[in-house]
């Protein structure tokens, strides 16, 4: 079915932006090429390979391909999201977002590193497994699944649906192929989102004492939360907790005292700080603000709550993946992922301690114009993922 490099170029040409075209076209393409690969197996073995779709949102389907094993060993699962962030502005004219342009052994295009390069590596490992099944005329001892998920770049409803459908849970060995800068990344900061609102009283700006300034109140609350985060303890591996006030809206004219202001807050939490502690910080900020700006009241809603994931040094998947990387001549350091991934959702919801990330490219290039992935990275990860499948399944 071609190398991972060739597959990555084809995948980049398919618009799967979120928001944008979404995953319909790329999922149909993946299903078709997998069906073609399975069709060359002996009939009895081809019938054992399961190709399943799960509609998560209208026209947006997860895809799972499973080669069953003959033993009760936990399945090895590669999970890769199909969506990318929006195509965006700022691309060079000679490296358009869907051009899949190759220059200096780098593949340019939206999703090239996040994460169509990694998806291509996982596909290549699946195709190598199907070739081995055909050559041996038998199924492997350990089962294998490739899950292609939707909505990772937004609310992660694809992986949530996969968990709810029983596609993956507490027992499997689960690896995503996010860009990891050559590392195996096994831990994640938590991700908790707040929508904080301050309500005030409108008045003419020349008589502010007749009103209560909701924007001023929000400034007090933001300053309080920032100071509180500076005092939080850092984690030995994950580092400090961080807070970002990513979006804010308030008021409607410069000459009117604003009676409402809302800010959306992104907190990346590390143990021992959790969502309960974060809630206490926000509630304290509201109380302090209400005292500082009389007439204003605050309220909040938690719109996202993902727990931090700490490293499990005893993970058998971690040991197997490190061995596979060493065998391929590319030993990998172990680190942590600064964002949140499909495997982090599985680890958090299912208490699965065998979840991690290893893929081509650098997260520093993701979501930016002129995103690219080096060919050497794709070829390295392709070798390691294929080696892991071969050494752990048979």
Describe the structure in brief.
This protein has 394 residues and is α/β, with parallel strands linked by helices. The protein has helices at residues 4-12, 24-39, 43-46, 112-136, 157-164, 214-230, 275-292, 316-327, 342-350, 375-393; strands spanning 50-57, 60-67, 76-81, 101-103, 106-108, 144-149, 173-176, 184-188, 191-199, 203-204, 242-250, 256-257, 260-268, 297-306, 334-337, 355-357, 372-374. It contains 10 helices and 17 strands.
Model description:
Strands 1-2-6-3-7-16 form a 6-stranded mixed β-sheet, sandwiched between helices. Strands 11-13-9-14 form a 4-stranded antiparallel β-sheet. The chain has a 3-stranded antiparallel β-sheet with strand order 4-5-17. It contains 10 helices and 17 strands. 35% of the residues lie in helices and 24% in strands. It is α/β, with parallel strands linked by helices. Strand 4 and strand 5 form a beta hairpin. It has 2 domains: 4-188 and 309-393, Zn peptidases (Aminopeptidase, 3-Layer(aba) Sandwich); 191-306, Alpha-Beta Plaits. The protein starts with a helix and ends with a helix.
Task: Please specify the SSE layout and strand pairing.
Elements: H1 4-12, H2 24-39, H3 43-46, E1 50-57, E2 60-67, E3 76-81, E4 101-103, E5 106-108, H4 112-136, E6 144-149, H5 157-164, E7 173-176, E8 184-188, E9 191-199, E10 203-204, H6 214-230, E11 242-250, E12 256-257, E13 260-268, H7 275-292, E14 297-306, H8 316-327, E15 334-337, H9 342-350, E16 355-357, E17 372-374, H10 375-393
């Amino acid at each position: 079915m071609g190398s991972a490099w060739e597959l990555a170029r084809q995948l980049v040409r398919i618009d799967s932006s979120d928001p944008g075209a979404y995953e319909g076209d790329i999922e149909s393409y993946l299903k078709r090429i997998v069906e073609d690969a399975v069709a060359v197996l002996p009939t009895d073995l081809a019938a054992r390979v399961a190709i399943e779709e799960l509609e998560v949102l209208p026209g947006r389907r997860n895809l799972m391909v499973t080669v069953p094993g003959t033993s009760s060993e936990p399945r090895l699962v590669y999970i890769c999201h199909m969506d990318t962030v929006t195509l965006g502005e700022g691309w060079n004219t000679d490296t358009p977002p869907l051009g899949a342009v190759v220059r200096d052994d780098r593949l340019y295009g939206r999703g090239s590193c996040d994460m169509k390069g990694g998806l291509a590596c996982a596909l290549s490992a699946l195709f190598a497994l199907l070739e081995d099944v055909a050559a041996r005329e038998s199924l492997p001892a350990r089962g294998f699944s490739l899950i292609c998920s939707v909505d990772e770049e937004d609310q992660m409803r694809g992986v949530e649906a996969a968990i709810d459908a029983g596609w993956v849970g507490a027992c499997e060995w689960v690896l995503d192929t996010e860009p990891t800068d050559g590392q195996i990344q096994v831990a994640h900061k938590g991700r908790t989102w707040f929508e904080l609102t301050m309500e005030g009283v409108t008045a003419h700006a020349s008589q502010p004492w007749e009103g209560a300034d909701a924007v001023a109140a929000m400034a007090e609350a933001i300053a309080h939360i920032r100071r509180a985060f500076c005092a939080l303890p850092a984690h030995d591996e994950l580092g400090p907790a961080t807070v970002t006030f990513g979006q804010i809206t308030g008021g409607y004219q410069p000459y009117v005292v604003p009676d409402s202001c809302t800010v959306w807050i992104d907190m990346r939490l590390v143990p021992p700080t959790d969502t309960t502690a974060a809630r206490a910080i926000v509630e304290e900020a509201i109380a302090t603000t209400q005292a500082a700006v009389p007439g204003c009241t605050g309220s909040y809603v938690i719109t996202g709550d993902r727990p931090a994931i700490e490293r499990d040094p005893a993970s058998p998947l971690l040991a197997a993946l490190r061995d596979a990387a060493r065998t391929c001549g590319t030993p990998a350091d172990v680190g942590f992922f600064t964002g949140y991934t499909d495997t982090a959702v599985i680890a958090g919801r299912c208490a699965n301690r065998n979840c991690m990330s290893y893929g081509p490219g650098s997260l520093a290039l993701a979501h930016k114009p002129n995103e690219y992935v080096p060919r050497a990275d794709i070829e390295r990860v392709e070798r390691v993922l294929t080696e892991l499948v071969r050494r752990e399944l048979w």
